[in-house]
Amino acid sequence: MNHFKQEQPIGIFDSGVGGLTVAHALKQVLPNERLIYFGDTAHLPYGDKSKETIIRYSADIGRFLIEKGCKVLLMACNSASAAAYDELNSLFGDRVPVVNVIDPVVAHLKDHFSSGKIGVIGTKATIHSGSYENRIKDQCPGVTVASLATPLFVPMIEEGFIFDNISNAIIGTYLSNPVLSHLDGLILGCTHYPIIKNQINKFYNFEVEILDSAKIVANALKSLLQEHDLVGMSHAGADEFYVSDYTDHFAKIAKMFFEESIHLNKINLPDSL
Q1: CA separation, residue 2 to residues 45, 95, 96, 241 (Å)
Q2: 228, 1 in Cβ contact below 8 A?
Q3: Which of 186, 193, 247, 258 sits at 20 to 30 Å (Cα–Cα) from 115?
Q4: Residue of 17, 25, 36, 77 marked catalytic
Q5: Residues 163 and 219 in one domain
Q6: 158 with 16: CB under 8 angstroms?
Q7: Nearest-5° angle of CA 175, CA 178, CA 184?
């Protein structure tokens, strides 16, 4: 990473608004960093796509962000991290560090849980890949893992059904599944899910530790940049936000996180590469 400069931006992408939870957490722990965010709203959700399709979408976005001069490529999407991390690291790892959102969460779990039952909820792609379950069993042998796909959460959030009776009913239906009974902790295995973290907490009467991947990943990325002396020392310019399809909800959620109106640049990949 010696060839990078502190003022270069962090590249971050997700299928939609979910990665904004990670972007927001990054701005809290790394306030001087400039972000270039890509939300692949034309193709969301990634969770019901094939592995090959997710790899293709992720590679196109990765190339775009690298061409924009990013010093690190953050896959702020669990479905992409589960399906495409190895491929993106193989494609781009010799040019730029590639960071996924699964490994930091498992590392955090290893440091904080030596036993107990941990639930994992995420998209079909993430859960069916076994990425969390296999890594946890390997690194945290004393922990029991219970996984459940919750595929309606992402479209529910993307359509703006949050903090209402519809979302509460969907959340309650999934979390009432016996698979997730008697948990000590719950991994939100999708970066969209922190948006409904309060509702999930309320379902469990605040008695289950909710592991928010956004904060964990932000702190892990900060440690990586500190290790290589690449933390931005002064704000290097305005953040940039790109989408493959404009949606009013994306703009609304972005404004909520960043407390200002966000200019969204709509581009088509790979046409623009």
Answers
A1: 36, 11, 11, 27
A2: yes
A3: 193
A4: 77
A5: no
A6: yes
A7: 70
Q: Does a structural domain hold residue 17? A: yes
User: Six-digit token pair at 208?
Assistant: 């289950």
Query: 245: which residues sit within 8 A by CB, 6+ positions away?
Result: 41, 42, 266
The reported pLDDT for the residue numbered 170 is 97
> 68: domain range?
10-100+215-266
The CATH number linked to 258 is 3.40.50.1860
Count of the separate structural domains present in the chain? 2
Is residue 70 among the annotated active site residues? no
For the stretch 119-128, pLDDT in tens is: 999 999 999 9
Rounded Cα distance between 46 and 14, Å, is 9
> Is position 77 annotated as part of the catalytic site?
yes
User: Strands (DSSP E) along the chain, which ranges?
Assistant: 10-14, 35-39, 72-75, 98-99, 116-122, 143-149, 185-188, 209-211, 240-243, 264-266
Q: pLDDT tens across 52-72, in order?
A: 999 999 999 999 999 999 999
Mean pLDDT of 91-101: 97
Q: Given the residues 22, 101, 187, 190, select the one marked as catalytic.
A: 190
